[in-house]
Amino acid sequence: MTAARRVWLLPFLSVIAVVVLMQYTSHAGAPLQLRGAAATWATLLMGIVVQALPFLVLGVIVSGAIAAFVPKDVLSRITPSSPLLAVPTAGVAGMVLPGCECASVPVAQSLLRRGLPQAAALAFLLAAPAVNPVVLVATAIAFPNNPVMVWARLVASLAAVVAVGWLWIAVGKPEWMKPQGGHDHQHRSKAETFRSTAMHDLLQAGGFLVIGAAAAAAIKVFMPLSFLGILLDNPWLAIIAMAALAVLLSLCSEADAFVVASLSTLSPTAQLTFLVVGPMVDVKLFAMQSGAFGPKFATRFMPLTLVCCTAAAALIGWLFFGRL
Amino acid sequence: MSGVKRTSEVQQSVGATVVLVLATVVFSMVLSGSYLNYLQPWLGPYLLVASIVMGVLGLWTLLEAAERGGDGHKLPGVAALLLVPSLLFGVAAPGALGPGAGIAPPAAQPSDTEVIYPPLPADEVSELSLADFSDRYVSPQPEDLEGKRVRLLGFVDVAEGGKWSINRFRVLCCVADAYRFTVIISGQPMPEGENVWVEVEGVIDLKASGDEPVLVADAVDIVNQPEEPYL
User: Fold this and answer.
1) Nearest CA in chain A to B23
2) How many domains does chain A have?
3) What interface predicted TM-score (ipTM) does this complex get?
4) pTM of the predicted model, to two decimals?
5) Is A225 left (phi over 0), alpha (psi -120 to 50) or beta?
6) What domains are defined for chain B?
7) Is A16 within a domain?
8) What is the mean pLDDT of each run of 10 residues along chain A (324 residues)?
9) Residues 63-82 (B) with a CB less than 8 A from some CB of A
């Protein structure tokens, strides 16, 4: 077999096969008929994956561009040398990427490979989906009667990001994160670096996105979340319940404000908790972080983030709304 | 050609295959409109662009691999999972959320926006979405609905106490954030069958209504599932 044939044969046949399969399914009916919970699970899985794809593709394009066009070590040079300053700087820089967590994982990974200090890259990872302009506008629209919510979300999210970054500097060990070497080898051209990085990140982050989506969909179908409702009477328990709900629901950060705005019997602080936790800690993100940075990292970083987010939301909520 | 290089170019071909299959599935999902079973229409163009970018990346990778062999990147094993949504769509084509899905946030309550709705005409039938009808019901003046004939569209499901209901989901981004609106129907028998969509005409019965409004129906027409199943 020639090299060209060895490369082209499999994709060619696979694409033809899947086109034939889709044609058959749409005309003769699906060979596999899903019912009940399985059907709901499959629809949710498709929804979460397909909705995340545009953001994921944007993320890997940015990640490829960083690998190709940002010279090595320039990031570590322009980053403030004091980590106490680097963390908030990276957090504020995260505001400019209008994506969800699916986009920020490959981008943060690429920034790490290009030499950005770990705590700063993690601050970017958390801040990008939490406080970008799209999310803030969506929050303003969802809370027409409570414009303070937008400011509370911004301040509490940034406070949580900075707290996590600084704590990670204090207690985190670099070796918890799986090595991000990636580019010790040279590519022929910048274009080739771009292509190979984008492709690799798409395959890796995409695979873990599917795991996260499958888990999040299963939780929605099989776990009765209504028991959380009984916790909502006590202001402290309501904050904890909303933090748990944010983790379990894995909503995208553009939609979560509308969902929580409909729970108007909740205190604004409990609503704020949902908005601060959701974009930084959830089931889908746990899978993607485990893939990018290793399970050892994710099992330490995610609980830390969850605690910081909940505490920041409770504190800022108390300051901004005057009650828990 | 060395053996190492050969493995890598085959790995690249496998990776590109996974991406191209997904791009093909997503592209045809947008063209056929079946993505509306999973997402809001406004995400369609972004999905189309994403599928084209994935297609270009896949083809570019194949060209490079055929021309120059491997690029030194190992294929992550987890990439195989990207085939799951493609094959699931090809084999089972999961449909819109239906009666089985009872997804609602706990203790869901109407928002406290003080919207004053213009009164419905008294002498003609008003076509309302289930969301509009439910919003009017939970507004400060549900009495405005009294005596007004409305026509509502939704899918059939059983309700508590041997009753039946029509339902529709509101979706903001994707089905993960679906919120369900329900109206209990009385006065007409429940249509038989699976995943039945109906248009129901009737008048609200405020006294019988509780958490969900009750509509006393005098006509139930079976219709096709709308192209956009979600509100």
Assistant:
1) A15
2) 1
3) 0.89
4) 0.89
5) alpha
6) 3-92 (no CATH), 126-223 (2.40.50.140)
7) no
8) 81 96 92 89 94 92 90 80 87 79 88 89 92 88 89 96 94 86 68 92 93 90 75 86 90 83 83 95 93 94 97 96 83
9) 64-66, 68-69, 71-73, 75-82
